[in-house]
Design a protein that fits this description.
- The complex is a heterodimer of chains A (261) and B (276).
- Chain A is 30% helix and 23% strand.
- Chain A contains 8 helices and 10 strands.
- A 6-stranded mixed β-sheet of chain A has the order 6-7-8-3-9-10, with helices on both faces.
- By secondary structure, chain B is mainly α.
- Chain B folds into 2 domains: 47 residues; 224 residues, no CATH class.
- Chain B contains 10 helices and no strands.
- The chains are: A alpha/beta (261), B mainly alpha (276).
- At the A-B interface, α3 of A face α3, α5 and α6 of B.
């Protein structure tokens, strides 16, 4: 399947217009309302909110994993409600997703098989056929030695990194990360921030164009020097904040709480 | 669908009539959900037949191996037990009243048509069906199914279809082995008991009692049993949002529902055999 047809310039990659998002775990409950949000190519969005404020629901809705309860959702310029299954899949494959809590790797597959699975499924490759790309990805995340290990035997750092590799292996244009630094030690956090900066600039080892990033977090502090656009979720609402200076200058008590230290 | 759910969750006075009504509605809901799930699976079998064959074929083979080949020893054991207990007894009983000529017919009716398929289905259900609910339920509870969807991989295609194929093929093949082992071990038991029945007579009676319809219906029946067990177990493991503590309850439901549906289908086949 062709997954890399380019998006026309100046088209928002993801766009939510007056949308409301369902809860991922409670499909009858609306958790975020009145979302007007545009993610343009080259953006590095940081979405802040307390736990339970609907960050994951917003990401899942933006990624097209669940339909908005109302309002419009566009992916790469097209209204998702009007797309057929094949077109929707084509667009969804340009959006990578890294889940929190160790990335939801498939527990019955080894690390290499986890990373190879999207390639095998969408490009009809055998495991050997995907081997070279998988080795590149494992090298990128520094886990080449753990290729044949099951995720359950690895620590959270390694699993979270493998989830990044699995999301990157189809070369997405935009990557959504749900609380990627949660529960990681400071050194591992630095690795992630470096890696995301490199991805945002176009990672030399991947040889691809810059990746647009959206990160959800409950702590804005580590992201201040990395993110380019900031926004936060509060009382079922989505508020864009602007750039770093506007975050620092913001008087909202919740934003102060999300910016400790 | 949401209307029915809301109604079932609404607190109402607990009368007997109310209890029966709720029971019926829950049953209706399960039947509806299962039917929809089975149809979706059937649809995916056709629409996704050309998707990623290099990935899917080994997975289907692995499922057949897991449900079929790895169950061979226990099916052999079960076949010997069935042969000794039922066939051995029947043959010696028929011989004692001088009715050896009916041995083949009894054998075909009891083992080929009825006991063989259902015994093999029960083995497949307990050994593989229960494992399917647990592995899929755990994957669901840990969010792996959402991760598949995020990667654009259809969970029905990747998780359900191989299991349906695996159990359908395995159920058919295991029933054949079970029947063969039971018929052979039954004769051995009769022989040990000094029943005056030559092997040639025994097998020619079997051959006369078997009709081509028996083979056709046996194939349809066993493949249906396997598919039903796979669909019910996958439905219970995948279709609802499970938490890790719900997996045990889902397993119990899957085993009971599979059993009930298989027995109901068996009843339909009894009618077909009688009409034939």
């Amino acid at each position: 399947m062709e997954t890399n047809s380019p998006t026309p310039p100046n088209t928002p990659l993801l766009e939510l217009i007056d949308a409301a998002a369902f809860g991922v775990d409670a499909p009858q409950v609306v958790t975020v309302e009145g979302i007007n949000w545009r993610v343009m190519a080259g953006d590095f969005w940081v979405v802040a909110g307390l736990p339970g404020s609907g960050k994951s629901d917003l990401l899942a809705t933006a990624a097209g994993l669940q339909r908005p309860e109302r309002g419009q959702h566009r992916m790469f310029g097209a209204e998702t409600a009007e797309l057929d299954e094949v077109e929707l899949l084509r667009r969804r494959l340009k959006v990578g997703m890294v889940f929190e809590h160790g990335g939801r790797l498939f527990s019955h597959l080894t690390l290499a098989q986890n990373i190879a699975l999207p390639l095998c499924y969408h490009q009809n490759r055998t495991e050997e056929g995907a081997g070279e790309l998988v080795a590149t990805m494992l090298g990128l995340i520094g886990l080449a030695a753990a290729a044949d290990t099951l995720p359950g035997r690895l620590n959270r750092n390694a699993r979270q990194r493998a989830a990044l590799a699995r999301a990157l292996v189809l070369r997405p244009e935009i990557l959504l990360l749900d609380n990627p630094l949660r529960g990681l030690d400071p050194r591992e956090c630095r690795w992630w921030l470096d890696m995301l900066d490199r991805l945002a600039a176009g990672h030399p080892q991947l040889g691809g164009p810059p990746v647009t990033l959206v990160v959800a977090t409950d702590n804005l502090r580590p992201w201040l020097d990395h993110g380019r656009q900031f926004g936060f979720l509060n009382q079922r609402g989505w508020t864009p904040l602007g750039d770093r200076a506007q975050v620092i200058g913001c008087e909202d008590p919740l934003v102060r709480d999300l910016l400790p230290g | 669908m949401r209307g029915l759910e809301t109604f079932l969750e609404t607190p109402m006075p607990r009368t007997y009539l109310n209890f029966v009504g709720r029971l019926l509605l829950t049953l209706l809901e399960t039947v509806q959900g299962l039917g929809a799930f089975a149809l979706i699976t059937l649809g995916v079998v056709f629409t996704h037949s050309q998707v990623a064959p290099r990935l899917m074929r080994p997975i289907i083979r692995a499922q057949i191996f897991r449900a079929g080949v790895r169950l061979l020893p226990v099916v052999g054991f079960m076949g010997v037990a069935l042969g000794l207990v039922i066939i051995g007894q029947t043959v010696s009983l028929l011989t004692s009243v001088g009715a050896q000529n009916y041995t083949g017919m009894v054998m075909v009716t009891v083992v080929v048509r009825e006991l063989g398929p259902i015994a093999a289905a029960l083995l497949v259900l307990t050994r593989v069906g229960a494992a399917i609910v647990i592995e899929l339920g755990t994957a669901r509870a840990q969010g792996e199914v959402e991760a598949l969807e995020a990667l654009g991989i259809d969970p029905i295609h990747y998780l359900v279809v191989p299991r349906v194929f695996g159990l359908a093929v395995a159920s058919f093949a295991l029933t054949m082995y079970l029947i063969i082992v039971a018929i052979l071990s039954g004769y051995v038991f009769a022989f040990v008991q000094d029943v005056p029945l030559k092997p040639g007579d025994y097998f020619s009676q079997l051959a006369q009692a078997l009709r081509w319809q028996d083979f056709a219906l046996l194939a349809v029946k066993t493949v249906s049993f396997g598919s039903i067990i796979a669909v019910v177990c996958c439905y219970q493991g995948l279709a609802q949002r499970l938490r890790i503590e719900d997996v045990a309850a889902a397993t119990i439901r899957a085993v009971m529902h599979s059993l009930v549906v298989c027995v109901l289908l068996d009843a339909v086949f009894i009618v077909i055999y009688i009409v034939m």
